[in-house]
Amino acid sequence: MRARRFLLISVFPLCWCAMTGVAAISVTWLAEPIHMQTLEPKTADLDIDANGIVDFILRSDGSTFDILSLADNDILAWTYPPPDYGSQVIQLQAGEAIDGSSSPGWTNVPGLFSSVMESGSIGLWLPPDATGYFGVRLEIEGNAHYGWVYLDNGWAGLGGGDIYGWAYETTPNTSILAGAIPEPTSLLLLGVGSLVVLTRIRKKNREQSASHLRWGRVSPHFVTKQNCCL
Fold first, then answer.
1. In sequence order, what are the residues at sequence separation of 6 or more whose Cβ sits closer than 8 angstroms to the Cβ of residue 176?
2. Same domain, yes or no, for 105 and 147?
3. If you placed Cys at 87, which of 77, 131, 171, 220 could pair as Cys (CB 3.0 to 4.6 Å)?
4. Comparing 224 with 35, which gets the higher pLDDT?
5. What angle do CA 197, 198, 204 make, to 5 degrees?
6. Does some domain include residue 223?
7. pTM score, whole prediction
């Protein structure tokens, strides 16, 4: 009994630590994607860190789809050489690192995803390779936080694609992989494992108790004698 009590007492701190020591990646998956397909000018706000302040604005006019950075936030993009103004947003695949050294570099000038017109198409997000991640850098309390946004731009011919979700690293100046999400920590696994052990012990004790009761129904004298010897 003492061993069972010790295990029960030790499990709860483990689970509490596992819950409070959550992973540093904050992920947002949208119940409904942000649709940017339109025949008229359309905008949508992105608040990556959910602080009530818009970090980026998506824009589409029916043919051109781009993103505008607000405040000191940046996007990972290839910048047009002067005298041109603007950039093309880089498409990343799952697992690519996003940090301060990411190439070609960070910028806060408007970033183009795609522009599809009768005269031709430009952009790095054109079918059939129009799905992936793009990197963002947030300025939070004076520190840089890196993140990713998942975009399916398969509707480029209608001015834009679908944003399904995003994530950012809550630890300042820390690299994040495109598509990375929090994983269970070893501490959480330890807590779950302890609960499994506890459940098995309790099950075994119930089986033993049931076995004693069956013996008691067959031979009450045996049970009485055993109790007297405890």
1. 25, 97, 98, 99, 146, 147, 148, 167, 168, 169
2. yes
3. 77
4. 35
5. 90
6. no
7. 0.71
